[in-house]
Each structure stands twice: as C-alpha cells, then as structure tokens.
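pasting input
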Amino acid sequence: MSKIAIRTENLTRDFGPVRAVDDLSLEIPAGIVFGFLGPNGSGKTTTIRLLLGLLDPARGRAEVLGFDTQRQADDIRERCGVLLEHAGLYERLSAEDNLELYGRIWHLPADDRKARTKELLTHLGLWERRGEKVAGWSRGMRQKLAVARSLLHRPSLIFLDEPTAGLDPMAAAALRDDLLSLAGLEGVTIFLTTHNLTEAEKLCAMVGVIRAGRLVAVGHPDQLRAKGGAHQAVIFGRGFNEPVLVSLREQPEVAAATLQDGRLVIDLKKEVEIAPLISLLVNSGAQVEEAHKGKATLEGAFLSLMEEEK
Amino acid sequence: MITDLLTMMWKEWKEILLQHGGIRSGILPMVIVPLGLLGIMLPWQVGRAWIESPLSLAVWAWMPLMLMASLIADSFAGERERNTLETLLASRLPDRAILFGKVCAVVSYGWGLTMLGVLMGLLTVNLVHGQEQLLLYSWKFTLGILALSWLGSWLAAGAGVLVSLRAATVRQAQQVLMLAIMLLLFVPVYGFQLLPDELRAQIARTLAAGGATRLVLLIIVALTVVDISLIIAATARFRRARLILD
C-alpha cells in the first residue's frame, strides 16, 4: 500500500453557486487517525463523498490508497469501510444479518464471515444481542454496529463521518475507546470527521480544519494548538510551591503563573522557548514530568482559526 | 457479478419477508392471501372459463403488477427514506448488481407467486368444476400465460424502479405506480367502449375469427419493447452521484 493514504490536489466541488469544497490540497499518511474538523456545512461530508468517488470534483484531483477517485472509484470502495452521516443499517434485519449482508457484499467466505462477526460483536459487547432487530436498538448500539460493519472486511482505510454525533457522553466515550482499540488492532487508516474537538484531541495523530470548504490549518493537534492566539505553557509534575511560582513570575517573558488542578499554567507575553523556564523549575527543586506549549486546548485554537477566517 | 446480484436478492427477500415484523407474520399477507385469491377464490367463482377464456390472460398479465407495485416502489425510495442508500452506494457493489438485484428479487416474487397462482387455480377448477374430467390449459394458453405474466412482471419492475429512483418518498412512488396501473387497466376497457360501434364490431369479429392469437402476439411484442426500453432507461438513470444528491 502507498505510504500516503489520501492525497488531494486543489480538489474543488460546487453545488450550483455554492462552493462546498474549495481548492483542498492535503496529504494524509497511512496508518494514522486523521481528524477533519469543521463546523456544520463546512464541506466535511462532501469531501468524504469526493474521496469515495461518489461525487466528481469540479476541479482538481484526489488519490485514495493510490487510486484516482474519478477513474478508479470501484478500487477505492473495494478497500474502504464507511460509517457515514447515517449509520445505514437495515432496521428490519438483525445485527447479525446486517453484518452477514456486508460480509457477502465483500465476498468474505462463509466461515470467515461468521468468525469475523463474532470477533467484532464480542469486542463491542453486542454478541449476546446479535439476533435482535436493529430497529429496537439505542443510537449508541447502532453506531457500534455500524463501526463493526465498516471494519468487517478488514479495509485499509475507513471513513467515519461524525461517529459520536448524537450520543450521550458515556456512549461517545465508549465508542471512542472501541475505535481506538480496534484501529490499533487492525492497523487501519481512519479519516474521521467531527466537530467534537475533545474527540479529535484524544483520537487523532493529525488534524485538518476546514471552514466554508477551505482548509485553514493542518498538522498535529499540538501544532494547531500552537497556532492559537495567547501563548501558554502547561507543566505537569510535582513541587510547584509558592517560592517556585514567585521566581517564575519574576521572569520578563512570564505574564502569569498559576496552579490549576495540580498543573502549572504559565501565561507567556509572547511566543518564547520554554526550556529556560523548565530549567528554572528544575533548579528550584520542582519535578517536571511533561510540558505542553501553545494554546491550552485544541478548542481554543479551533475557535481562533474560525475567527481569523471570518 | 452473479454473486453480487444474488447478495442483493438475498437482502431484498429478507426485507420483503420481514417487512410485516417477522417471517411468519409476513407470509400471510405476502404469500397466503394473494395465493388464496388467485389460486382458490377467483377460479372457484369463475369456473371453467378461468382456464379457457382468453380474458383470463389479461388477469395473469395484470396480476404481477398488482403484486409487485408496493415492493418495487420501496426499492430505492425506501432505501433513501431509511437512510441506507448512501452506505450501500459506498460499498464495493457494482451499479448493475444493485439495480438488477433489486429488480430480480421483486420479479422473482411477483412472477413466482403468479405461477403458483396459475397452478393452484388449475387445481381448484379441476377439483370444483372438473366433473371427473381432467381440465388443462391449451398449449397456446400456457405460452400466453407464461409470456404475459413474465412481461407484466418486468413492466412493473422497469416502471417501478424508474419511479422509485426519482421519488422522494415511498408513498410518492407507490401513488405514482398505482395511478399508472389503474390507467393501464381502465384506459383499454373504457377506451374500447368509446370506440365507434362499427370498429368495436370489427374488433370483435377479428377476435372471434382467430385473431386473438395475433392480438396476444402483438401485445407480447409491444410489452417486450416497452420492458426493454424501461430497463435501459433505469440503467441510464442509475448514477451514484445523482442518487446521493437527490
């Protein structure tokens, strides 16, 4: 498989006068969880449809797993799994029959279909309820089943379009854990669209931010956080006592230094190296386990990016 | 392609039988009621004419349309309404397997049930009106039933899938199809009555003089052309991008 799972060059798609995806150029390495962030109507779902070859671009091109989306869409769909905006489950059928159908669609041998169904449903805690019709299931259970369906044929790449949307926090957290563990086990590339930034921070090795069809930022979540407005350093460790805080506050680049939930949060006047500050902490007797520089959260960076683009 | 087609048929059959809640509860309205009507009640009442009158050929041509209308209307409009269409289109299934899998599942239901009705009707007429004599369809009549019911099934499938591809909801698709079937039934009947007396008499004379066979052949040719046109139109209409954006 190509080391780049997805490559787009100036990908553009219009719906009448509306430009849904605008000049999107992106490279996503294979084997990672990529988060595609953006508000509702920003072009996330259209991008997935373009990448699956379900829609043709107005301009530009895209390659998925080395295949051109316009000329080799069948090859792409052969190798991908999907959980789109709607779970797409047949409610009259049982959970087992839903997986049986997609196992047949992907030509899995009967023995493999059964074994794989058992493996995935057991992992997701649904095996005991496999004979029940999906119509009676909660949204969380349906989403889990749809995740199982997307992984059934061992795809190289899966597209998940807001998989935790509409779930309660417990169900969303459970699904996130399942996704991470399954992705780790299966070694697949995941293209995940979401507007849940906590989710993106927890799951993604790389994120892209899209607004009104345009890619406004791409990189590791830490890189995106650093793109935010106010500069900040968050230090985890022990021994951050008052004398240590006082000596920090005396530094010319430090605007404030406070303890928040056991973490040391340093507000910086400008973007500076924090290594000298860490040295100061260590020399003052504190123990530093972890340090983050930039915006405090991805959410802050995201909101700031949205503001910048307005 | 054949494996994919059979997969789609498997899914469609499961959904047909489970649409009333379960396989047992689905068999009564989907199989037993139509067979009771076509294979027992009507032949019992009509008697020997059921297997001898050329008019019963019209019943066998029209019956698959009635049996299949609601099912074929559901084919794409139902998937769209229940939000399962896009996931299906995002799978590896070829366009033709999706389209013909749905069509073949409904045709196998409509034509299969019609054939069972034909056999049961023959049995009923023999049991009730046979008078210790074995009554059979003539070979011309048998060929007519086979051809007209087969072509009627494909007419329902072709027209139904075209309507279903375009309709926003199942209800809309069903209404359009039922209207078309009613027109197909009433226009020839009332149209014939509106013809001048002389022309009607001429038609009746032609039929009586052995022209019925020619008329049936003409209908078979016309239906074949219409069916092929409808299937070609449905194949052309089936475009993933268009279906997703509809």
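fyi Chain B has a mean pLDDT of 87.
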